[in-house]
Amino acid sequence: MNFHTLSVSITPSSFLPCTHKTYLCSNINNESTRVNSPALSQLTTKKLCLFCGRRHFVQAATMATTLFPINPSSATNNNSDYADVINQFHPPKPDWYEEFYAWVMNSATESYEAEVAKYKSQVLSNLKGKALKILEVGIGTGPNLSYYATDSNVHVVGIDPNLKMEKYARSAAISAGLPLSNFEFYQAVGEAIPLSDASVDAVVGTLVLCSVKDVDLALKEVKRVLRPGGQYVFVEHVAAKDGTSLKFFQQLLDPLQQILADGCHLSRQTESRISKAGFSSVEFNTAFVSNASFINPHVYGIAYK
C-alpha cells in the first residue's frame, strides 16, 4: 500500500545493445558501474539494456547532470524494456484507477499521517546529517519528504510504479524545501530498483512491503543499492498475532484489500522478513495506529547494511 521511485557524458558507446545479463551505467566519475539486479537480468538479451540518463531517450541525449549513477526506468527508445519488468511485478491498471488512487493517497490520509508522525520522526530524523543520497521506494505522494529532505544538500530519488504519484511527490518536495534540482522521480518497482550497486546512503520505505509482489527480492534490492553501513528506514504494517480476532479479520479481508488498495496484503509477517534479509543489524519497535483499523500493528525501525 503506497500511503504514501554528477556529470555524465553521453557517448555512442553508452547506447550499445546489452550482450550480457549484467547491466552497466555511468557513475559519478563517468566510469562503467555494474547493476546486478536479478529482475533486470531476466530480460531477454535480444532487447536493449537500460541506459543511463533520464526517463526519455531524447532527454538522455541532451542531459548534463543526474543525481545518482542511475539506470532509469524508461530510458530506451520505446520504453519497453523496463516496462516489462514493471508489468511483471505490478500489472498495469486502468489509468483512471491510478489517478484516483493517487488522489486518495494525497487527500484522504491526513489523520493517519498525523498519528504516525511521531513514529516516522523517530526513525527518519536519524538520516539528517548522515545521508546525503537517499532513495525512497514507493514514494507515493511524498509524505515522508518533510522528515528527511529539508536540507538543500540532500539528493533524493523516489520510485513508484504509479506514475500518477509524481505530481504530488514533486509538490511535496517543494513544500519540504527540497530544490527540484535535487529530486528525481522514476516509475519503477522495488523488486528491480534502477540504481547502481552501493549508490545511496539510505533507503526509505513506508507501507511498501505490504504491496510488493516479492518481499524478499525487494529487500535484496534495497541491500544491493545501499552503501556499506547504509541505513534502510522502514515503517510497515504487519500481521496481527495468531489466534486474535484481528488476525482472523485480516485473513478474511485480505483478498478484497489487495483489489481495493493496489495489492496491499493485510497479513504479511514483514518484520520477520526484514530480520532475516541479511542486514548486519535490525532495530524496530511496534505500535498500534488507531486510524488504521485492520491495518495493524505497525513496525518502525532501521536496518543497517
TrEMBL record:
**Methyltransferase type domain residues:** 135-234
Q: Which domain of life is it from?
A: Eukaryota
State the InterPro entries in the record: Methyltransf_11, SAM-dependent_MTases_sf, Thiol_S-MT
Q: Which SUPFAM superfamilies match?
A: S-adenosyl-L-methionine-dependent methyltransferases
Which Pfam family is an annotated match for this chain, by its short name? Answer: Methyltransf_11
Q: What is this protein called?
A: Methyltransferase type 11 domain-containing protein
